[in-house]
Amino acid sequence: MDMQQKKWNVSDIPDQSGRTAVVTGANSGLGIATVDALARAGAHVVLAVRDPRRGEAAAATVRGRGSVEVRRLDLADLASVREFAAGWQGDLDLLINNAGVMNIPEAATKDGFEMQFGTNHLGHFALTNLLLPHITDRVVTVSSGAHKMPGSPYIHFDNLNLTGEYAPVTAYSQSKLANLLFTLELQRRLAAAGSPVRALAAHPGWAATNLQSHDGSALRRVFMQVGNRIIAQDNKAGALPTLYAAVEDLPGASYAGPDGFGEMRGGPTLVGRSAAASDPASARRLWTASEELTGVTFPEPAVAVRG
Predict the structure, then answer these.
(1) Which active-site residues does the annotation give?
(2) Which of 12, 97, 107, 283 has a 20 to 30 Å separation from 4 between CA atoms?
């Protein structure tokens, strides 16, 4: 057996029978690959999607011992996030914050936030905290190697919406850095509350999905198309770090990604993050700002009360 065969893959996912998972952005790309793998392992998986018709079409492609259902969720609309969370009943073992937009032209969410920061970070921030009383095992948030792009991305605390200084790549990098800082502070709060729930993060490396097709730059779109053919993994391989973080016994705040050159492709393993993504003071500051912007605060996790 060669080394490639020994790498962690979907066959290593433990039996997920009796477990329930929510995957955001689940109708294509990494999301549907994540849903399919969990369902094949026996889980009941909820596809949380903006367009239920596309979600139903995606759900129809899933095969496995588990089951799937589709529920509407628009992360760019806090009212939709609140409606989704209010409709949840019972335990939720696993929340996978997968949905995202990348390098798009300047736009705003329904609540007036810069679209990439609002969707990739604030929407998931609100969703996680609203669902947290139901969550029993872990939260996995999908970040990106773009959190440490050249130029040392940082959180623009004085201008989170990048008003007057918007650049697609800057906004995307900020949102992905925010995902890691969110994971860091969420884990700190869970541990302080005595909760066994864990917060982890993952990134797919370079995965060929439709995420790159909405880039605001025609030149970058061409570059992405070429890279998707030459460098990228497919969506199933790209989903492996997320699945690894979702089911393996890893420490809270762990960050998973591919083990190959530049973390572009390869089998899932634990990877490093930038100094900016490891700063607890920035993580706390971002959390406070996110609470103020969304009106959603950290609840007392129900599992902490259960003991």
Answers:
(1) 172
(2) 97
